Amino acid sequence: MKEKIMKGVFLFAACASILAVGLICYFLLVNGIPGMAKIGVGKFLGGKIWRPNNDEFGILPMIVGSLYVTAGAIIFGVPIGILTSVFMAKYCPKTIYRPLKTAIELLSGIPSVVYGFFGLVVLVPFVRNVGRSLGLGGNGSSIFTASLLLGMMILPTIIGVTESAIRAVPAAYYEGALALGATHEGAVFKVVLPAAKSGVVAGVVLGIGRAIGETMAVIMVAGNQARLPNGIFRGIRTLTANIVLEMGYATDLHREALIATGVVLFVFILAINVSVSLLNRRGQNG
Amino acid sequence: MKKRIVTICLMLSMLVVGATGCGKQAKASEGITIISREDGSGTRGAFVELIGIEEEEMTTEAQITNSTSVMMTTVAEDESAIGYISLGSLNDTVKAIDVDGVTANEENIKNGSYGVKRPFNVVRKEGEENEIIDDFVGFILSEEGQKVVQENGYISIDDVQEFTTAAPKGKAIVGGSSSVSPLMEKLVEAYSKVNPEATLELQTSDSTTGVTNVIEGTYDLGMASREVKEEEALEGADPIVIATDGIAVIVNQASQIDGLTKDEIKGIYTGEITSWDSVGQE
Fold this sequence. Notes:
- The complex is a heterodimer of chains A (about 290) and B (about 280).
- Chain A contains twelve helices and two strands; from the N terminus they run ααββαααααααααα.
- Chain A is mostly helical and about 290 residues long.
- Chain A has a single domain, classed as Orthogonal Bundle (MetI-like fold).
- Chain A is globular, with a radius of gyration of 22 Å.
- In chain B, strands 1, 2, 3, 4, 6, 7, 8, 9 and 10 form a nine-stranded mixed β-sheet that branches. In chain B, strands 5-11 form a two-stranded parallel ribbon.
- The radius of gyration of chain B is 23 Å and the shape is elongated.
């Protein structure tokens, strides 16, 4: 009897997260789809003009903005992240491993609004000066700044997952490579890292997920102009920023359009997760 | 391999250092950095209306923020920036400019010569009876309440009413506009001294939420930094003006600009004027 009750409790606990996802899906679809249909799917997804007051709801600039900023974050964050985790797993002397690990854990614990404020006060003026001295113009709140900041923010995610993936590679791989005459670098970069590939990819994709969903920090440094990007030193608005900026005031169709923006964002995240599981499955079969 | 990595690192750091070095010599003779508030914001609505810009004319190059502090930080750091904030939030980090030759201050707003202003409303539900709210609104509209309004940089209303507290007991919820909220906080504080029996809970959201929640009964008193819309009034929202707020047009402290005309501000925000060189000459 006792066991049955406990089984029920466990089952309920297991279902809670599924229930949460289900409810969110339901809420998004029920509230978002009618709005999208009212605006017209093509007009909504492909429209270049976002002017809620004039009933023009085109979110193409925001979709492109989210993609640009995320791509930028990958360019900044992934190389540093992967090299850091290689260093931590294979090169790092014990004396600096502790502080390094602590620093990275701390980095992941910083609230995003603090990142945003750091970006606003430090990165924005820095990028403004660099942009202007190179004659590229812009005022610092730009795709470049947002990418830089997001690249920083996704570091802990990438490093954490990648490092454990590298550590999970059997020691025999590394030793075997050395026995065959490979150097330390050769063994690490040509044998161990490729063997940890699926873990590395998972780390990168998790980082992408974090970058695309990040809101507070991006809103403070990206400029938030609702138009197609015209240079990496110019501002852009992301999907998340669009929702947060206007949610408080939106009514009627405007509100529905913002929820529909959430649907698009949800589809993005879904696509990312599906591609991760596909990659993992292929990795296992191969 | 190791050497190569070291070389790459060195080159990268040199590039970064070099870039910062150049940055310091950069002149701020670039175009104008325009900063605006998000669509639907009470401050933006008032600004757009008072300067006479149609929403569809607003340049898409304007940077958008949903917070006064981001607006002020950006303007304080960028020599070529222009923005606008509530007069009550103005401080020394930025410079408020004259509009049409009139300085943004209390006197000029009161006598009507400074035209960029908006009402602060509290909203009640029509026909709803609540002793505490009756008493509190009475206090706000009294001489004592309006003194609090003035002390915080906002413009008081002209006809103050007599007020003695009926000292009702209980609890009520006040909520809405984040622009009105700082003032309301001070008013609640002052009221609690007059009538310590009542507890007022302050919740900050935005004008629309404030009005909607009053209609739905979540808040007993709403705050709105804009006029109440017709549809809202039809659903029973009853606004009372408690103060007037000026909107200050702000630029960087180091800016050469001290004043602009409404037409020039309009030109900047519609994207027709893109350089500081062509404006502000007197």
